[in-house]
């Protein structure tokens, strides 16, 4: 299921740098169907939904199969804003990792992260994946590679790993793993994780500073509250719209259902990096994908989704996905 959690533009900028500039893929092709404009990238305060982020990553995967590893090797700790500086100023690696796990919304992760201690070893695990199945391997690679780089940045030197375990099968580009995981690697494993000696958790960080850490932690708490508040609104909007996809209520109707004014709802959605039409399109695309997987005829899918003409549904689906429904299904 697509999720509209909020996140920043860091990953989008990385994709445009790595795949756009370095591999010559046009930016408009990478941004296609995401609702993100090039002008948006100049706004430091903008928030986008993770569904938008994954749309761009799905576009980029067509040009780089190992995209998760490529991005993960560039997602430095400074990419996480106030959270990154809170981690850098922590006393030890263990303190920093425990702090990071307190703010999953600020990490922008699609996983449930945990530290699992087993004797003299610690596993940093990423399980409980909750987004598009076809992007799971990409997201596992991106998550673990970026976490490894964050650990390296915090320590000021590479964290020595004992092993890396991945649930998915070994990909054709397995050699690309060595840059992030220069250790024994096991695929088709029971979990997504990497393991290191527990002694590393007590390692003092070179940039530790108690005053800065306290200030950054307070900023993280405020920012996290802002993210959660905006996410609550998006969740309520999505739930209301999902129940009315065949006959959407319009912005004014939705505002009435949520007991607020249309102007207020429009402003709050804009602050959350979304809009009424964007949410509606996300839900329609999600529903259309589910129906296509059930092998229903295109005209019946169009009718089920409230389109009076099949052609109108075809045009809308191509706008959402970049492909006509028949090609998307195949």
UniProtKB/TrEMBL annotation:
<feature type="domain" description="HTH araC/xylS-type">
    <location>
        <begin position="235"/>
        <end position="330"/>
    </location>
</feature>
<dbReference type="InterPro" id="IPR032687">
    <property type="entry name" value="AraC-type_N"/>
</dbReference>
<dbReference type="GO" id="GO:0000976">
    <property type="term" value="F:transcription cis-regulatory region binding"/>
</dbReference>
<keyword id="KW-0804">Transcription</keyword>
<dbReference type="GO" id="GO:0003700">
    <property type="term" value="F:DNA-binding transcription factor activity"/>
</dbReference>
<protein>
    <submittedName>
        <fullName>AraC family transcriptional regulator</fullName>
    </submittedName>
</protein>
<dbReference type="InterPro" id="IPR009057">
    <property type="entry name" value="Homeodomain-like_sf"/>
</dbReference>
<dbReference type="InterPro" id="IPR018060">
    <property type="entry name" value="HTH_AraC"/>
</dbReference>
<dbReference type="Pfam" id="PF12625">
    <property type="entry name" value="Arabinose_bd"/>
</dbReference>
<keyword id="KW-0238">DNA-binding</keyword>
<dbReference type="GO" id="GO:0005829">
    <property type="term" value="C:cytosol"/>
</dbReference>
<dbReference type="Pfam" id="PF12833">
    <property type="entry name" value="HTH_18"/>
</dbReference>
<keyword id="KW-0805">Transcription regulation</keyword>
């Amino acid at each position: 299921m697509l999720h509209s959690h909020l996140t920043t533009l860091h990953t989008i900028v990385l994709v445009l740098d790595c795949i756009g500039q370095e591999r010559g893929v046009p930016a408009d092709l990478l941004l296609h169907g995401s609702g993100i404009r090039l002008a948006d990238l100049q706004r430091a305060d903008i928030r986008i939904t993770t569904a938008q982020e994954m749309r761009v990553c799905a576009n980029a995967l067509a040009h780089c199969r190992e995209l998760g590893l490529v991005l993960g090797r560039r997602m430095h700790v400074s990419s996480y804003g106030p959270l990154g500086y809170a981690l850098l100023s922590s006393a030890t690696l263990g303190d920093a990792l425990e702090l990071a796990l307190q703010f999953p919304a600020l990490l922008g992760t699609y996983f449930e992260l945990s530290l699992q201690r087993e004797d003299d070893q610690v596993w940093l695990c990423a399980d409980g994946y909750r987004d598009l199945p076809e992007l799971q391997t990409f997201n596992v690679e991106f998550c673990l590679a970026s976490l490894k780089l964050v650990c390296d940045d915090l320590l000021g030197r590479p964290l020595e790993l004992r092993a890396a375990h991945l649930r998915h099968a070994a990909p054709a580009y397995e050699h690309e793993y060595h840059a992030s995981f220069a250790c024994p690697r096991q695929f088709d494993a029971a979990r997504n994780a990497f393991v290191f000696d527990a002694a590393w958790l007590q390692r003092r960080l070179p940039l530790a500073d108690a005053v800065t850490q306290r200030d950054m932690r307070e900023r993280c708490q405020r920012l996290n509250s802002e993210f959660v508040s905006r996410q609550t609104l998006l969740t309520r909007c999505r739930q209301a719209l999902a129940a009315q996809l065949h006959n959407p209520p319009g912005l004014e109707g939705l505002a009435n259902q949520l007991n607020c004014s249309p102007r207020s709802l429009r402003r709050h959605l804009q602050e959350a990096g979304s809009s009424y039409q964007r949410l509606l399109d996300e839900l329609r695309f999600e529903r259309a994908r589910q129906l296509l997987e059930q092998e229903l005829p295109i005209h019946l899918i169009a009718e089920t989704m409230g389109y009076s003409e099949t052609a109108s549904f075809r045009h809308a689906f191509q706008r959402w996905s970049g492909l006509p429904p028949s090609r998307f299904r195949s």
